[in-house]
């Protein structure tokens, strides 16, 4: 053991000389990318009208806003607002048993059914399920929203923009999707679009 302690400073001196002798030079790394790729912007909305005024860029909006686009609503086959709002981790379900209208909690605060829900900027009663078949996007203002509505809960405001799905040339004008819900009851929805 005595000899090991005497050799330790010698080993450290030799190792430090070896490490200092070979400096490591890394090659330059160039990273390039594209801000918009095909299909990538379908789910990403760049504008919102959450304040009830004109639409503004999300980058210029001094608030925490989540916007769920028409493509996301359609691809998720969302029937209820809870199907859309599952995409935001700050939103949870309040008291919402099957068959009862939905209640939401945003950042731990319940949304008020009297003034926290809006369609096209107009207040609606929250004690109802909102059909999403003709909705263009769903916007969620998280946090204080007194500027937008005058009176509101600390949780925020949920704004639904209707705009109707546009019929593409390759889509059928009439379709009947049949799905099975979690409760095991089949659901049949008929949609007619076009001229």
TrEMBL record:
One of its GO terms (cellular component) is cell outer membrane. The keyword Transmembrane applies. It comes from the Bacteria. PROSITE patterns: TONB_DEPENDENT_REC_3. Keywords: Cell outer membrane, Membrane, Signal, Transmembrane, Transmembrane beta strand, Transport. Residues 1-20 form the signal peptide. It is a multi-pass membrane protein. Its main location: membrane. SUPFAM superfamilies: Porins. It is found in: Cell outer membrane. Pfam families: Plug. One of its GO terms (molecular function) is siderophore uptake transmembrane transporter activity. Residues 58-157 form the TonB-dependent receptor plug domain. InterPro entries: Plug_dom, Plug_dom_sf, TonB-dep_rcpt-like. Belongs to the TonB-dependent receptor family. PANTHER family: BLR3904 PROTEIN, FERRICHROME IRON RECEPTOR-RELATED. This is TonB-dependent receptor plug domain-containing protein.
